[in-house]
Amino acid sequence: MRFTIAQIKEKKQKGEKIAMLTAYDYGTARILDELGVPLVLVGDSLGNVVLGYESTIPVTMNDMIHHTKAVVRGTSTSLVIGDMPFMTYHTSISDAMRNAARFIQEAGAQAVKLEGGERMAETVRAIVDVGIPVMGHIGLTPQSINQLGGYKVQGKSSTAAAQLLNDAQALDEAGAFAIVLELVPAPLARLITEKVSVPTIGIGAGPHCDGQVQVIHDMLGLYSDFVPKHAKQYARLRETIRSAVADYVNEVTTGAFPTEKHSSTMDESIIAELSASSGRRHTSSRSRAR
Ligand code: KIV
Questions:
Q1: Which of 50, 71, 113 to mutate to test the pocket of ligand 1 (most atoms within 8 A of CB)?
Q2: 197-200 contacts, C-beta under 8 A, 24 or more apart
Q3: How many domains in the chain?
């Protein structure tokens, strides 16, 4: 049985912190599910960490559906959230509903996430009204990177802080079941968390949110060239993988791998017979007939 939206909301009332992580493939999803991670986000950060794009903007619905299906196959208890890509929910409310439905109907996700506050409230309401749970996302919204002018902390001025609070309250009123706060100063994230009825999930938003989300590649240390300030590396997997690959290449090159342990045997008399008849090519009846 998967975590339900009601159980996630209940965690805020009970003061239980919520751990959320991203996943993009079956194997990783299985590990998160085994460990009881309640919320697994198939983020459009897929574009950066899996597909090698510079931003999330090129990510398509088909990319997201493909990866969400794999994550759903790898989970049985985590609640899987599909991230709606750039321009799949902006053109009209009916486009937004149709694309949200693809995540649920085609990919098997239990919820969707979309970026934007007050200006997206009507869209959130329409999607929620047809029975699709929606997670909001405000603060630094990577799909608007060209307008924001960089990956910077949001909501520092009094106007921007008031707008972020409005955004969170509008999403809450529109029926979002949780709200991601990305790169929001900790005191503002705390105020928003107190003012909304649904859980806030922070990333670079301090310790007072109801939960936290990290991009799994960041927390596992899979990239060393760029580590965001808000990320904590719980492992250095890049180094582990580099060392394992170097050992493998060395062992294949020197003949140390594979050994008998990694090989299979057969009746040696068959080999002896084949070897004795060598020189004569064994042809199939079809090739002989030609
Ligand atoms: O795409 C993503 O992974 C996200 C999280 C960082 C919240 O939106």
A1: 113
A2: 197/12, 197/172, 198/9, 198/12, 198/172, 199/8, 199/9, 199/11, 199/12, 199/18, 200/168
A3: 1
